[in-house]
Amino acid sequence: MKIRIKAKAIAQYLSRVIKSCYGITSVPKSSLKDYASGLVGLYAYDEGVLVRIKDNVVYATVHVVVDPLSPIAAIVKNLRESLDYAFKKLLIKDYEVDVKIHVAKERA
How many helices (H) and strands (E) does the chain have? Predict the structure, then answer.
């Protein structure tokens, strides 16, 4: 029996994961939605996360705003580890994962 996970469920879960990461102050809502509107195909969107599943590959684009006083390298490392763990927890074994992370500093 094969279990399928919908892109929307992955987007919602990843959105919760990134909001709990060290140094993430917020996730942009409107800019990612505008970005998604120009894409072709079926994409699932949740706050800060855009997900598409095609040919057994999960494509995830993550947009975050970080604390300007925190080291960005540490924040991205923590975020990457959290996302890797989240994908393992979702039991996505038959799929490849392609994650892109876009980082912006919060304006002081």
Answer: 3, 5
